[in-house]
Amino acid sequence: MGERGGDASPIFIQEIWSASAHDIPMHPMPDDAGHAVKRGGPCPKTMDSNKERRTAMQKSMKRYFPIFVLPTLAAFTVAFLYPFIIGIYLSFTEFTTVKDASWVGISNYKKIFMDRNFINALIFTVKFTIVSVVSINTLGFLLAYVLTRGIKGTNLFRTVFFMPNLIGGIVLGYVWQLLLNGILARFGVTLSFSAKYGFWGLVILMNWQLIGYMMIIYIAGLQNVPGEMIEAARIDGATRFQILKQIMIPMVMPSFTICLFLTLTNSFKLFDQNLALTAGGPGRQTSMLALDIYSTFYGRVGWEGVGQAKATVFFLMVAVISLTQLTLTRRKEVEN
Fold first, then answer.
1. Which of 198, 188, 166, 204 is nearest to 277 (CA)?
2. Which pLDDT band holds residue 3 (cuts at 50, 70, 90)?
3. 210: closest CA among 278, 129, 148, 147?
4. What backbone torsions phi and psi does residue 125 show, to the nearest 5 degrees?
5. Which of 97, 180, 211, 335 is most buried as measured by Cβ atoms within 10 A of its Cβ?
6. CA end-to-end span of the chain, whole Å?
7. What domains lie within the chain, and their CATH numbers?
8. What is the SS3 assignment for 245-293?
9. What's the CA angle centered on 284, arms 196 and 287, to 5 degrees?
10. At what angle do helices 169-184 and 195-223 cross, to 10 degrees?
């Protein structure tokens, strides 16, 4: 206020004028004659102008939307949709090239379930996926929980744990093949000596590559848990385990949804690491579905149609399992 008790200083009036009508409620201000003058609030003309501007912008977006979507839609059609439809058609044919395909009906699909290699690859893939999904998400969440406790060097640890995800699968497979065979050689065996060595070698490789990636996602989820909620639970006498079980895990369910989806699909689709680490040995006992499809399509003459049928079944299987997982985990998500 100014020196005169009844007058408002110019600085105070300027602050009132600059305030937004939605941020600070405007009150009547006295003028020089002592009459109440209502100040602030949006001008009706300004509101109409803003509304017209938004309407024009929406019309422009609708008008040019097809132009911006067209390149992406064309690329999606050429690179995915068209090959996918052709692939489904070829799964019902016998062919060596697309142009010489001859229709054979569902005989290719009958051969799939009569192929012992496919059944073994399916069982091996399911076992590997279950172990990998559980171990990766458990260790990734535990690391995220530890690194959000405010310990020293947190940023360094996050970077180091994430770095394996940046290495290509083929390179990673050959590196771990050298490491694991070097260790197993002391016991007179190698990864190809028995299927169990190849299985656990793939599990170790997959964990080492993906734990850091999942950890970053879990850290983002844990950092979004409201601190007030945790503090209130502590005041009520909740233990750390109770806070973790009853508050943190339910609040981090969106992160669990993402991580479970990524680990599930990546484990099912694993190919390059499988090829580099074990190449399916011994005797194709460690071949996963992707490697078995590759071996069928390119390694058996006249079985191209069967390989394509395997790929179709593989796609449907992964799609159904992934969508089921997404549906189940999203039901358990809670809002902050």
1. 198
2. very low
3. 129
4. -65, -40
5. 211
6. 43
7. 44-90 (no CATH), 112-330 (1.10.3720.10)
8. HHHHHHHCHHHHHHHHHHHHHHHHCCCHHHHHHCCCCCCCCCCCHHHHH
9. 75
10. 130
Do the Cβ atoms of 148 and 223 come closer than 8 Å?
yes
Q: What tens digit of pLDDT does each residue of 117-126 get? A: 999 999 999 9
3-class secondary structure, 9: coil
Name which of 22-26, 197-201, 232-236, 281-285 the model is least confident about: 22-26
In one letter, which amino acid is 74? A
Residue 318's Cβ-count burial label (10 Å; 0-12, 13-18, 19+) is middle
What's this model's pTM, rounded to 2 decimal places?
Answer: 0.78
Task: Return the residue matching tokens 């079980």.
Answer: 245
- DSSP annotation string for 176-199: HHHHHHHHHGGGT--TTT-HHHHH
Packing angle, helices 154-162 and 116-147, rounded to 10: 170
Q: How is residue 278 written in tokens?
A: 């074990």
| Residue in the block written with tokens 């007058």 | 7
Please list, in sequence order, all residues whose beta carbon lies within 8 angstroms of the beta carbon of residue 284, skipping any fewer than 6 positions away: 117, 120, 121, 292, 295
Residue with tokens 């998400």: 137
Mean pLDDT of 258-262: 96
State the greatest distance between any 2 C-alpha atoms of the chain, in Å, as a whole number.
Answer: 103
* pLDDT of 133 above 50: yes
Neighbours of 302 (CB within 10 A): 9
In angstroms, what is the C-alpha Rg of the chain? 31
What digits encode the pLDDT tens for the residues 6-51?
444 444 434 444 444 444 444 454 554 454 444 555 555 566 677 7
